[in-house]
Write a structure and sequence with these properties.
By secondary structure, this protein is α/β, with parallel strands linked by helices. The protein folds into two domains: 233 residues, Aspartate Aminotransferase, domain 1 (Alpha-Beta Complex); 256 residues, Aspartate Aminotransferase, domain 2 (3-Layer(aba) Sandwich), CATH 3.40.640.10. 39% of the residues lie in helices and 12% in strands. The strands form three sheets. The chain has a seven-stranded mixed sheet with strand order 4-10-9-8-7-5-6, sandwiched between helices. The radius of gyration is 22 Å and the shape is globular.
Length: 499
């Protein structure tokens, strides 16, 4: 393994109950992955056979009739019939009735292995009783929100500050998108600079200034429908792993007033869909220090899923600002936060009529008792039970099994994992080369075809009792025992038999 693919040293704290184990046991060979990505998108798509796809669709028609009816009724009052992209499922959304541990049950009684885990935050598995009991206590005592200070918000903030190396203070908000908006505003207020550089392809929520180079690098404003050009006028993007391009942008911006911040997902865009070399974050930290820019880690997914200290502890790199989201409350709603250095964070001092120079950030339901109690006890339970380490081992087991199936069936698919975040690339839709703007129109057309293939793969997984994120990403949890993973591997093998 060459130097740039050597896994960073991971210092794990000890819990009172048991030692914590590394959430990521081995960093993937990034250079090899990109070679395999290139091969995948060069080949004709290996889709589900048409005769087999008909049987997959029959599953939904015959076994999911209540979900179909609810989805049709929802279209009358909800645009597209779903409120969130995670809810979309081809050929129609599945309505769930029960979530428990490693499984979901839909309204028609069909049971699934849950590899969506609400998009990642339920590291303990869905609806753990210990957490539910704590939430019920606070609901009975004071209800979900008071609009005033509650003991749990200070306890949650203290626990986050103790756990994450780059966090001295925390400001709780309602979502990851809100936290990103606040982090950008805070960085600009602190540095008195305008430019924000993000890593192309990364997803940082849907705020106007960050819907830029989203999901596919070098695509700029392709997704920015309804967003004035002025909103993204000071947003830039660089390809992941391209430190030279980042340096050039920082140099150019220095001539134009300087860069306020560089924002990134520490595993790489889209939770490692385009993975970075393990030394990449450290080199970005050095560039930020050289040019006086703040470094923002978006740890909406990696916070606590990579252990109590998040990706910053794993890579041993301290960001100036940390963004947290749904991970913060163990799957309960209204979860988001900005954390960071004390001197930076003090610009968020609240209060009516304050004379302090500050970045204005707020939210009436932020830091409500329900979310804070859920978050506090979810983090304590995750540490007590070594949830990140055990979920990571489940991810390793799943990845090894999928590798065996793919090799045995001579498929071009690519599977790899960073602990409990498992990527299964079959269509390669998010791996297309978008660096040549003159060919971008061809990429858009190919992306549509590959996106549909990914939807069909997702439908085949669902018809075989597997729920994934968009058919290409899998989150394992503490609830995923060896038996659950082995059951899932048998189901994946059945799906790949249809290719």
């Amino acid at each position: 393994m060459n130097a740039q693919n050597q896994a960073p040293q991971n210092t794990i704290a000890q819990s009172d109950d048991a030692p914590l184990t590394p959430a990521i046991s081995e960093w993937p060979d990034v250079d090899n992955l990109y070679e395999r990505f290139a091969e995948l998108v060069k080949q004709p798509m290996r889709t589900i056979r048409r005769d087999a796809m008909s049987k997959v669709l029959n599953y939904f028609e015959e076994r999911c009739q209540t979900s179909k009816r609810l989805a049709e009724e929802a279209k009358a009052v909800i645009p597209g019939g779903v409120q969130h992209n995670l809810s979309f499922n081809y050929p129609f959304p599945l309505a769930m009735k029960q979530a428990q541990g490693a499984h979901l049950t839909d309204v028609d009684g069909n049971r699934y292995i849950d590899f969506l885990q609400a998009g990642g935050p339920t590291l303990l598995g869905s609806n753990p009783p210990a957490l539910r009991d704590k939430v019920n206590e606070v609901l009975e005592e004071c209800g979900p929100v008071t609009g005033l200070l509650h003991e749990s918000e200070a306890k949650l903030a203290e626990l986050v500050c103790q756990s994450m190396p780059g966090v001295d203070m925390v400001r709780l908000l309602g979502s990851g998108t809100e936290a990103v908006m606040g982090a950008v505003r805070l960085a600009r207020a602190y540095t008195q600079r305008k430019w924000i550089i993000k890593i192309g392809g990364a997803y940082h929520g849907w705020s106007d200034q960050l819907v830029y180079g989203m999901r596919l690098p070098s695509t700029g404003r392709m997704e920015a429908i309804g967003i004035p050009r002025g909103a993204t006028a000071h947003t830039q993007e660089c390809l992941p792993n391209d430190l030279g391009a980042l340096r050039r942008k920082l140099q150019l911006n220095r001539l134009r007033g300087g860069t306020a911040a560089v924002m990134l997902e520490p595993l790489g865009p889209e939770s490692g869909t385009r993975p970075v070399h393990p030394n990449y974050n450290r080199e970005v930290r050095k560039l930020c220090d050289e040019f006086g820019a703040l470094l923002i880690f978006d740890e909406v997914v990696t916070g606590f899923r990579l252990g109590p200290g998040g990706a910053q502890a794993y890579f041993n790199v301290k960001p100036d600002i940390t963004v947290l989201g749904k991970c913060l409350a163990g799957g309960y709603p209204m979860a988001g936060a900005i954390g960071g250095r004390r001197d930076v964070m003090m610009m968020l001092v609240g209060g009516i009529g304050t004379t302090s120079k500050r970045a204005f950030v707020g939210g009436t339901l932020s830091a409500n008792p329900l979310s804070c109690v859920a978050g506090y006890h979810a983090l304590l339970e995750a540490q007590r039970l070594d949830a990140a380490g055990k979920a990571g081992r489940a991810g390793d087991r799943l990845r090894r099994g999928l590798e065996e199936i793919i090799k045995r069936r001579n498929l071009p698919y690519v599977v790899y994992n960073m602990g409990s975040i498992v990527h299964l690339q079959t269509s390669g839709v998010l791996l297309l080369d978008t660096s040549n703007l003159y060919k971008l129109w061809r990429v858009k057309d190919e992306a549509r075809q590959r996106k549909h293939m990914m939807e069909e793969m997702g439908a085949a997984y669902s018809a075989h009792g597997l729920i994934t994120l968009a058919g290409s990403r899998i989150y394992t949890s503490l609830a995923d025992t060896d038996e659950v993973i082995d059951d899932a591997l048998n189901r994946f093998d059945d799906v790949f038999d249809l290719v």
